[in-house]
Specification:
The protein has eight helices and 19 strands. With 350 residues, it is of the alpha+beta class. The strands form six sheets. Strands 6, 7, 8, 11, 12 and 13 form a six-stranded antiparallel sheet that branches. It has a four-stranded mixed sheet with strand order 1-2-5-3, with helices on one face. A hairpin with a 7-residue loop joins β17 and β18. The longest helix is centred in the last third of the chain and has 19 residues. The protein is globular, with a radius of gyration of 20 Å. Bound molecules: flavin-adenine dinucleotide (FAD). The site of flavin-adenine dinucleotide has 34 residues, from β3, β9 and β13.
Length: 350
């Protein structure tokens, strides 16, 4: 376990937004034992802990983190595969998610091909039930093994008990409780994708929604679509210096939905609520692509991505996020909720 001093502002170099002040302590955990020890030792002395992985879903305050930051760098994979039951694949938390997706496709493991191009690590995927283009990790996760910081034990939590929902889980709702150590996925075997659910993806692939097609083609198409929206990280392109989508899509009661213009996108949900598009609400409240100032702004390619234009502080980004929240509320009466995890900073409530 390596402990090193983090110079002024250097947590910024661990987040895709390139924002965040210094950490009081910074520990690199390259093995599972180091990860558990780092978290356990800090918990024992009552120190605050921030588990930091790829930093692609984190907004860290300019004041930094007044405690121990544990950087997850674990790796390793175990595969149990046979033609009848498919592949059970257990992967260490610190491994790269997108490299794993590419590997899965090369091994004919079906079910995560549409999640290509999402930055970050394996261990973070169950936290917000990562999803895109009609797939979510909840569909292929079998279980999550973690260190329970409250009970001081190792625990394997079956997918059914992970509380997965739209961009959320039991882990996200209990942020100080679990350190994810490994995630086990269960895959069907085949060279065709799972049914393509997302209309834009199906259209671009030239298939009907619900049809299957080559997984390699799905990956390439998703990566192209994502690049067009600034949703693939590119160190040369400030339009991608974001935390992905900054706001989640709101789920509204039917009477709230009736107050929106007929043109607002709507997807009926099994529980009677209606999902609408945060991007549409933002755009139609006057915040068009590229909106902002010289420090922060909306990506020129995607309304939902709030970007650091190079010299911003976290406070600038929060100010922009609040301006958008207020603007959307004043226009449509809908209060947008942030998707990334905020550390040491917060947004105004409605
Ligand atoms: C350009 C871009 C595009 C994106 N597109 C998508 C998308 O399409 N869909 C989507 O769902 N998300 C998307 N995201 C968000 C982000 O990539 C995912 O949420 C990703 O899973 C975060 O992984 P990370 O390793 O970077 O986690 P971090 O940002 O380091 O951490 C995120 C949260 O998870 C916690 N955490 C991380 N690892 C562990 C662990 N081992 N144990 C316990 N807690 C842990 C952290 O404490 C923090 O609360 C995008 C982000 C960017 C920058």
């Amino acid at each position: 376990m390596a402990e090193r001093r983090v110079a002024e502002r250097s947590l910024a170099s661990f987040t895709t937004l390139r924002l965040g002040g210094p950490a009081e302590r910074f520990i690199e955990a390259s093995t599972e034992r180091e990860l558990i020890d780092a978290v356990m030792n800090a918990d024992e002395v009552g120190e605050k802990v921030l588990i930091l992985a790829g930093g692609s879903n984190l907004v860290i305050s300019d004041d930094g983190f007044p405690g121990t930051v544990v950087h997850v760098l674990t790796n390793g994979m175990h595969v149990d595969q046979d033609a009848c039951s498919g592949a059970m694949v257990t992967v260490a938390a610190g491994m790269s998610w997108d490299s794993f997706v590419a590997h899965a496709i090369s091994q004919d493991w079906v079910g995560i091909e549409a999640l290509s191009g999402i930055p970050g690590t394996i261990g973070a995927t169950p936290i917000q039930n990562v999803g895109a283009y009609g797939q979510e990790v909840a569909e292929t996760i079998a279980s999550v093994r973690c260190w329970d910081r409250v009970e001081g034990t190792l625990k394997t939590i079956a997918a059914a008990d992970c509380g997965f929902g739209y961009r959320t889980s039991w882990f996200k709702k209990n942020p100080q409780r679990y350190a994810v150590l490994t995630v086990t996925f269960q895959f069907r075997l085949g060279d065709l994708s799972s049914p393509v659910q997302y209309a834009e993806l199906a259209r671009t692939l030239g298939v009907e929604p619900g049809e299957r097609t080559s997984m390699t083609k799905v990956r390439e198409t998703v990566l192209d679509l994502r690049r067009g929206k600034g949703m693939v990280l590119d160190p040369e392109d400030p339009d991608t210096w974001s935390a992905g989508s900054f706001f989640t899509n709101p789920f509204l009661a039917p009477e709230e939905m009736r107050r929106l213009p007929g043109a607002a996108p709507r997807w009926e949900q099994p529980d009677g609520t209606i999902k609408t598009s945060a991007a549409w609400l933002i755009e139609n409240s006057g915040f068009t692509k590229g909106y902002g100032n010289e420090l922060v702004g909306l990506s020129t390619k995607h309304t939902l991505a709030l970007t650091n234009r190079g010299r911003a502080r976290t406070a600038d980004l929060i100010e922009l996020a609040e301006e958008i929240q207020r603007g959307v509320f004043d226009t449509f009466g809908v209060w947008l909720v942030n998707e990334p995890v905020l550390v040491g900073c917060e947004l105004l409530g409605p």
